[in-house]
Design brief:
Among the domains are: about 1-220, 4-Layer Sandwich (Glutamine Phosphoribosylpyrophosphate, subunit 1, domain 1), CATH 3.60.20.10; about 235-370 and about 465-535, 3-Layer(aba) Sandwich (Rossmann fold), CATH 3.40.50. Helices cover about 40% and strands about 15% of the residues. Helix 6 runs antiparallel to helix 19 (about 495-500) and helix 10 (about 345-350) runs parallel beside helix 18. The protein contains 27 helices and 17 strands.
Amino acid sequence: MCGVAASLSSDHRAAVEAMLDAIPHRGPDDRGVFSDDLTQLTIGMNRLSIIDLAQGRQPMCNEDGSVWVVCNGEIFNSPQLRKDLEQKGHKFLTSNSDVEVIPHLYEVYGEDLPNHLDGMFALIIYDRKKRILFAARDRFGIKPLYYRPTPKGIDIASELKAIISRSGVAKQLDRQSLSDYLSFQFIPAPRTPFEGIMKLAAGQRLKYSLDDGRYQVDNYWRLRIDPIDDGSPDLIEELREEIRASVSRWSLSDVPIAVSLSAGIDSAAVVGLMADKTNRPIKTFTLGFKNHSDQTEDEFKGARLTARRWKTDHTEIVLDPQEVIRDLPLMAYHLDEPYGGGLPSWYVYRAMVGNVKVCHTGTGADELFGNYGKASVFHGLRTGALRREFKNSLKKLSIDNLVYLYRFPNAYRSWMFVRDTEKRRSFFHRTDTLTGCRPSEYLIEQHYKSHPTYSIEDSITDFDFKNQLPEEFLHVTDRFSMAHGIEARVPFLDHHLVERVMRVPASLRIGKVSPKDFLKVVLKPFVESEILTQRKLGFVLPLTRWTRNELRPAIEDAFSPTRLKRQGIFNPYLSRQVLKPHIDGIVDDTQRVWTFFMYQKWYDVFMG
């Protein structure tokens, strides 16, 4: 696991050193750079050593030094790839480095290389013969990669803060990204908060020609939903073995692996599958909240059941709201982009420091099997009236209708906080702030129109895999784990498993009463019955109470009319229109208040 960077520029070496200096947390164990002064190009990395601790230094190259690579991530099929490449005559310098297979594999497959890698990765390759700079992000966007084209070159790095840290970068706010953030609580790829800086979307690759300065970005992989299974008796056992194989593949490591354990079935199953294959105790970590006893006890109770069954080395973390207040600026710094979602995992990874360097999480299972947050829309759209309303909203291109539809059944209630008409009418200090910006809601509309053959359930799954999963859940998982020098792995997002699950029809994959009913049957041997039958708890901060009490002074400062006038972005009357009714308990506007507050925390850190 590493932080990577590359620069094609007149100050290429200094630029890469500056970018790596900005992200030391991603790789505290080592640093390496390779420079080519003839082409004015440098690539480099900060390393967190997980596999081949002694020899796995980067950058790495092939036998003649014509292909150089830096990679953030883990390639879980590297042992088999190495064996195949050795049979083809390739020579390796390390004993088992997963990254060393990449330059040799590039020699064989060229730009199709990412399709032959299993795992999570953000990689940069310098092809000296073809004079190409090549970069790719894994299929689901587990690892991040940003880029900044310039008139005479390009910068690439693992984090946004790395790119803006190098000299000569102007931080001009991107208005479309601001609009999208207010709608989604995150910024969908390829945009970032700043004009001129982009991020590769999940499953994308970038090719830059050193000869003419042209570059292109395209998809090397797309999620394919192809429901062909008929629900045969062998299906459950087949999927059970596929999940078992995924956990096994993603457990490749030369250091111990822990589990971020909630009270839910996903992480509990990961613990059970790991314990089935190891004789040493697994370290597990669970978080609860101080002064929020019901949820804390529920979360701890479920996790304890799993810990006792599999005899794990279990740690419980109790979170105090004062810690959140204290840590918000640091969280905003590590998040890189404005983010209005949940923050609890920060404290899970912090507790792991000094104990482990790698952990598994259950991230991705919700999206595979219905996604609890979208459950009501699945049920609602099975009724004729709501289904007709959905179809009519698409036919009429009615943005407000479409947004209302998602808010009405609570399907995207945690996504759509500020409608486009409201943004343009009253949210900003200047009435022309969003001039030229498309409505954020068009992302939803365009997506559904681009998949006319998909069922509504499959369309929602596909939309989540392209947007919420990589740019919200995996974004937070990566940033918060790497902030503490921890490598977080997500075995439910092994692409072999995902592709297999996507062959199961939604009518089987997604339960009619509880979306995960099907998954519960698959995972039954590894999860306690009490966990299988409990309601979905959710791993979220008690924000309604906190925004009205513990966090109130900080939030009132963020909404201060004086501050908003000085900032010049938002309407100074937001304090009266949005915050006061919420603080006074007249309405529950928690999500809009929190979304706005977290943007202000990000702005404080990055715009100062």
